[in-house]
Amino acid sequence: MNVLKSFAKVNLGLRVLGKRPDGYHELETLMHEIDLHDTIEISSAEETSLHAPGMSSEDNCNNLVIKAYEMLKQRFPEHIKNYHFKLHKHIPLGGGLGGGSSNAICVLKFLWERDVPEGTDTKILDDLAASLGSDTNFFLQGGTALCLGRGEKIVALDNKQYFFNLLLPDFSCSTPSVFRVYAHKEQDRLGSLEDLWKKGRGLGENDLRHACLEAYPKMKQVMDSLGDSCGKIHLSGSGSTLYSYHTSMEERDEQYRLLIEGLKGSLALKVLKSQSVFRL
Ligand code: C5P
Question: How far is the CA of 118 from the centre of ligand 1 (A)?
């Protein structure tokens, strides 16, 4: 049996540049891999199946892991073998942390390395990843990257260590619902996302913040419950996860203390500590 870690991401900046003729939005977003992860156990089997303990049967059926498997099997029917996938979820669904996409790419990469004939053009892998979603290609390499186009064009950046508090509301946000209410506004920018990343400041702006609050009034209640900490809290993707980022663990821990104190035991929001992932 193989056991894989499937890491989450946060968006350290997300700019919507406009709407495209294909209905998607042109994006510029800075994605950063963090150590919050799901675990995927993969074992050889007579027939391919997926079991995700605690997940509804509908979510099991629509799971991107099985979609990724089927797409690769269709492309390489002679080579892709049968497997049982057991998925232990820790990354919230519909949380803007890319959990489903990360799971799919984790499995796609595993199958690619194990079953696809050596020397096969990796452009096929990129194209398959892109057809699974808009934030999937990022997970082919992880680390930190500027993601352009629909999100699938990746420019890798040098990685840096950050420390996070993740604020996980007890509800999810649907990406299509948030984009549906998004209204384009020209914004004043502090600089390019790449420059902000290099300088290590001004991160966390998210053009979807207003749309998320409009689509989910509960998000506004969450923000209001944060009181003085609110200015330091940013939205990941289309929500519902919020986060604070810090350059030192001490600073992060101090913010964690303030958050927990401010929330006064509210059960509607879970706060988790996390940090950047470094791949060797
Ligand atoms: O491609 P993905 O499944 O991740 O996107 C979910 C939905 O989010 C799309 O169907 C679309 O409504 C919206 N979306 C968008 N522009 C993007 C990415 C996603 O409008 N760049």
Answer: 33
Pair (39, 65) in one structural domain:
yes
Is the minimum distance from the CB of 24 to ligand 1 under 6 angstroms? yes
How far apart are the CA of 134 and the centre of ligand 1, in A? 6
Out of 24, 147, 177, 238, mutate this one to test ligand 1's pocket (max ligand atoms within 8 Å of CB): namely 24
**17 and 117 belong to one structural domain:** yes
Instruction: Tell me, yes or no, if the pTM score tops 0.90.
Output: yes
Q: Which residue numbers are catalytic? A: 9, 135
Direct distance between the N- and C-terminal alpha carbons of the chain, in angstroms, rounded to an integer: 23
* Residues 7, 131 share a domain: yes
**CATH code of residue 20:** 3.30.230.10
Same domain, 145 and 114: yes
Number of domains in the chain: 2
Q: Length of the chain in residues, anyone?
A: 280
Task: List the structure tokens of 140.
Answer: 């082919």
pLDDT higher than threshold 80 for residue 62: no
* Closest-CA residue to 30 (of 128, 160, 129, 132): 160
Indicate whether residue 149 lines ligand 1 (CB < 6 A): no
> 131 near 102, Cβ under 8 Å?
no
Report how far residue 100's alpha carbon sits from residue 106's, in angstroms, rounded to the nearest whole number. Answer: 10
Cβ of 174 closer than 6 Å to ligand 1, yes or no, is no
**CA-151 nearest atom, ligand 1:** 21
pLDDT in tens, 133-183: 999 999 999 999 999 999 999 999 999 999 999 999 999 999 999 999 999
Q: For residue 89, how far is its CA from the centre of ligand 1 (angstroms)?
A: 23
What pLDDT digit, counting tens, does each position of 248-276 carry? 999 999 999 999 988 876 768 899 999 99
Distance, in Å, from the CA atom of 233 to the CA atom of 241, rounded to the nearest integer, reads: 10
